[in-house]
Amino acid sequence: MADQQGEQQIQEHVVAVNCFLKDYIVLLVQGIPLSIQRPAIQANNFEIKPTNTTMIQTSVQFGGLPNDDPNGHLSNFLEICDAFKHNGVTADAIHLRLFLFTFNEAKAWLNVLLIGSITT
């Protein structure tokens, strides 16, 4: 019995020695699960330019402070997003991709929502 336990410990140690740090990483390379469910896009050459994300980050920020107006935040966000059009891409697809760039301190709230809970 003691020999079996010792042999099992040796085998576990050999396995652990042969592992690399990358073997312990749980994060998916394909993408981090987000609370925002982004729909698939059929357009071949769709991309959101860094200037677009910068514009969103500088003009439509929501911090979750008591004096922040969530309705005003959404209204401003949708107004800016209406300027972004691309053939074959729905407005929801654009909104859901840009929405996370509108948060600063309130991003902690966004990160604790259920995965895929924001769909429109």
Short description:
Helix content is 43%, strand content 0%.
Keywords:
120 residues, mainly alpha
Walk me through this protein's architecture:
The chain has 120 residues and is mainly α. It has a domain at 34-112. The protein contains five helices and no strands. The longest helix has 16 residues, at 2-17. It is globular.
Share in β-strands: under 5%
Count the DSSP helices. Answer: 5
Per DSSP E runs of 2 or more residues, the count of β-strands stands at 0
Report the average pLDDT across residues: 77
Which sheet architecture does the biggest sheet show? none
The shape is globular
Spell out the helices and strands N to C: HHHHH
Radius of gyration: 22 Å
Structural class: mainly alpha
Helix content: 40-55%
Terminal CA distance reads 59 Å
- Uncertain runs are none
SSE blueprint:
Layout: H1 2-17, H2 50-59, H3 70-81, H4 91-98, H5 107-112
